[in-house]
């Protein structure tokens, strides 16, 4: 390989966009990987991911349909009969937005994509506030999946699974992203709406709180902008 290549999982949101810039800052040529799994805001997320790929002049942008995750169900992101809950930033319970074992499915496909394109890394933007509620965002999960990659790929294949923010808060990610000039106006996080963002679901709340903590205006439009930082 003439240069380092990395597959980066991109959801259209701020964490994965920051992971793209982090990978590039570490010298990787970016291959962006996006999936549709029946989430309510999929069209917006996909467009944001595609525009980000154009913005960074990605080596490739791969979109794959994974609607079987919606067919399996039990997540408020994919099942219209389950309401997306308002944010509870103090809860340690697994939220209704959890898509069962989603990251294992996505990382398996990303690894296939990486091996096929001689990429030496797969990046995912999961962070500490994710793994407090989502079991497939825990550091132990990523350590275990690294063993799966090592065992299940060709002997000459070496792919490192990198979760650069796994011990970081959302605030840390926002601060790092602003430092790297990540175009957050091109990203989308809301679980409920395509435009404007609701401002009250978990994804909106954690995002707004992060920007409020670093005293930077979140550049996307919101229906509501509650204060998530104590005065």
Topology:
Layout: E1 5-9, H1 14-25, E2 29-36, H2 42-55, E3 60-65, H3 68-72, H4 102-116, E4 121-123, H5 128-131, H6 139-152, E5 160-162, H7 170-179, H8 202-213
Parallel strand pairs: 1-2, 1-4, 2-3, 4-5
Helix pairs in contact: 1-7, 7-8
Under CATH, the homologous superfamily reads HUPs
Q: Per CATH, what is the topology?
A: Rossmann fold
Average pLDDT score: 94
The CATH architecture is 3-Layer(aba) Sandwich
Low-confidence stretches: none
Rg over CA atoms, rounded to whole Å, is: 17 Å
Task: Report how far apart the termini are.
Answer: 52 Å
Class of secondary structure makeup? alpha/beta
Listing every helix as H and every strand as E from the N terminus to the C terminus, the arrangement reads: EHEHEHHEHHEHH
Strand content: 5-15%
Question: Oligomeric status of the shown chains?
Answer: single chain
Give a count of the beta strands, DSSP E runs of length 2 or more: 5
Proportion in helices:
25-40%
| Number of spatially distinct domains | 1
Tell me the strand order in the biggest sheet: 3-2-1-4-5
Q: Provide a count of the helices.
A: 8
Sheet bearing the most strands, described? 5 strands, parallel
CATH class call: Alpha Beta
Overall morphology: globular
EC number: 6.3.4.20
GO molecular function, one term: zinc ion binding
Function: Catalyzes the ATP-dependent conversion of 7-carboxy-7-deazaguanine (CDG) to 7-cyano-7-deazaguanine (preQ(0)).
Catalytic activity: 7-carboxy-7-carbaguanine + NH4(+) + 2 ATP = 7-cyano-7-carbaguanine + 2 AMP + 2 diphosphate + 2 H(+)
